[in-house]
Amino acid sequence: MIHEFGKVGILYGGHSAERTVSLQSGEGVLSALQSKGIDAHLFDTSVHSLAALAAQNFDRVFIALHGRYGEDGTLQGVLELLGIPYTGSGVMASSLAMNKIMTKRIWLEQGLPTPKYKVIKNLADTDAAYAELGLPLIIKAPHEGSTLGLYKVSQPDELHEAFNQASNFDHELLAEQFVVGRELTIPVVGKGDDARALPVIEIFAPDGNYDFEHKYISNDTRYECPANLAPELASRIQEISVQAYRAIGCEGWARVDIMLDAQNQPWLLEINTSPGMTSHSLVPMGAKAEGMSYADLCVFILSQASCKIHRPMPENG
């Protein structure tokens, strides 16, 4: 089957604030695919033009981009127009999942558990969110990942500074009720009825601070996979994660982030449709717990590459 992949492009780098992570992901995927005899090539979307992408004549591409202009539906739309099959979710699902506000609205409409929130656009909105949600609360830039643009507010005098800092990333922000509990993440792979969750991973970050440093640079964060959960609770968390994935319309692979409170109630935080594939990344960790190597995971993801928008047959004449 591998020879049927043809010439494969690995789209990485890009323009987002997560560029450095994407560079690591792309290099890892390249090495994995080449180790399987696949004709794979790196393509940095911030260095080369769309015309250059079309000229490469890739038979399919593996998207190893994170954040804006790679995970948010923009690149997916380009690939649909070019007719190049690509990994991961389509235009709509990528765009929805990238916007944490829209994600929460869909989950709530579907009856899925997610913390209370308010949309804030100015300092008055921020004060109103504090009055309604209490402290601590989280202020997030809804279009960023890797905890960029995310601030925990524990004291009233921190509110305005958190808003001002997060505003450097987005004009419209998300204020979210802070859930105290265990931090979990669940990789999900597949499409539609075939979508399934990999083992639940628990994250133990220093002082509970799972920020960019503790995700990608430091070795101080500890992970437990599978997480130490009662089997029925783990199954319920996996089921909720798959429901969240399907509600957005995701396919290929993604990672769902959840907080588990003291009453063992899971709360959905966000979903990442182009998760990291670095040495510190969690989707490969979940796959490994099921006996799937990093290279086999990359091949599986690549095997599901497709265009998602149906192309009607041209009319005769």
UniProtKB/TrEMBL annotation:
Residues 104-303 form the ATP-grasp domain. The keyword Iron does not apply. It comes from the Bacteria. Belongs to the D-alanine--D-alanine ligase family. One of its GO terms (molecular function) is D-alanine-D-alanine ligase activity. This is D-alanine--D-alanine ligase. One of its GO terms (cellular component) is cytosol. Cell wall formation. Gene3D superfamilies: 3.40.50.20, ATP-grasp fold, A domain, ATP-grasp fold, B domain. Mg(2+) 1 binds at D257, E270. PROSITE patterns: ATP_GRASP, DALA_DALA_LIGASE_1, DALA_DALA_LIGASE_2. Its cofactor is Mn(2+); Mg(2+). It catalyses: 2 D-alanine + ATP = D-alanyl-D-alanine + ADP + phosphate + H(+). Keywords: ATP-binding, Cell shape, Cell wall biogenesis/degradation, Cytoplasm, Ligase, Magnesium, Manganese, Metal-binding, Nucleotide-binding, Peptidoglycan synthesis. The lineage of its organism: Bacteria, Pseudomonadati, Pseudomonadota, Betaproteobacteria, Burkholderiales. Its EC number is 6.3.2.4. It is found in: Cytoplasm. InterPro entries: ATP-grasp, ATP_grasp_subdomain_1, D-Ala_lig_Van_CS, D_ala_D_ala, Dala_Dala_lig_C, Dala_Dala_lig_N, PreATP-grasp_dom_sf. Pathway: Cell wall biogenesis; peptidoglycan biosynthesis. One of its GO terms (biological process) is regulation of cell shape. The active site is at E18, S146, S281. Binds 2 magnesium or manganese ions per subunit. Mg(2+) 2 binds at E270, N272.
